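User: Quick one: structure for sequence A, then sequence B.

Assistant: Sequence A:
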Amino acid sequence: MAEPEIVTVYSSMVITNGPLVQIFLEQDGIASQIFDVAPFTGAYHELDPANAAQIWVGVQPSDAEAAKDLLAKHFDAWVEKRKKYKEEAGPAQAECDDCGKTSEFPASDRGTVQDCPHCGSFLDVPGDDDEIYDWAEAESLPSEEDLEEPPEDDVW
């Protein structure tokens, strides 16, 4: 059996993650391509692999293991950063849009949706990823104008 031309190394139900993963891989010298249909299996799944993903990032077979390792290390670092942030941030205050009352939630609930203890409505507990995202890093990423579009007939 012939080796596939492309191996999927990442999939996500969040379509905007595809270009971010592609930039991340290419900054480490790994050429990649985005698909809306998975060409092959073996991906690092952001969500439960049983979920049907909507976007996939593929690489050449020779780069597959390095890409999967790089993505796994990045994900582990992100989890640790988020955990540390939640521990250091302490409890979060959230105001209910329905009853207007303010409630306090433990740091572990930051960035989640909880039930209002006063009226039972859903409310967003502040502390999502925007609070821990390092926007200085984003400024160092190439702009869209800097990203060269490959010719349509050229896969790599």
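Sequence B:
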Amino acid sequence: MCRKLILVALLLTLGGCALFARPPAQPPLRPLAPLPAGESRQLVQHIAVTWRGEQSDLMGASLLGPELVKVSLLTPQGVSLLDIHYDGREVKAQEYLGGGRQIPPRALLADMQLVYWPLDLLQANLPASWTLREESTADGRRRELYFNGELYTEVSYSGPDIWRAQVQLQQKSLGYGLRIKNL
């Protein structure tokens, strides 16, 4: 009888430990790459965001330059939601209308870099635990970003020219997707 009680107590203790076990750690946000040298670009985009089971349509206005990146997200009616500024060292964000449920601004900036920055610049600035691959597909091209061998983000382009292509991005770690159409 005593053995059965000890066995039951041991099983309950081990089962209780499983209840308090930490969930697997989320990978960190991807490090940001420096600003690319060269000419500036201005983008106006329609962005469909899918996050937490909801889809939102946004407008994006971006300036990508060698000294500064500015990204503004607006509602389709033109109401400002978020401004992001990146000078190659520091990310500053100004949220409007509360913004409590939004995707982290730094994650959005990292995704913009993943979509538009030159592949060699991104690869040169990834720590050892990160891997970035790009391949041509029948429809355009695809980039896949891995963290410790696990797919972190996938980007599909509708054509070979990234500045004209429609883009689909699936951010696996934070659980959101973006469909980007340059206007």
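The chain has three helices and ten strands. The radius of gyration is 21 Å.

User: Thanks, that's what I needed.
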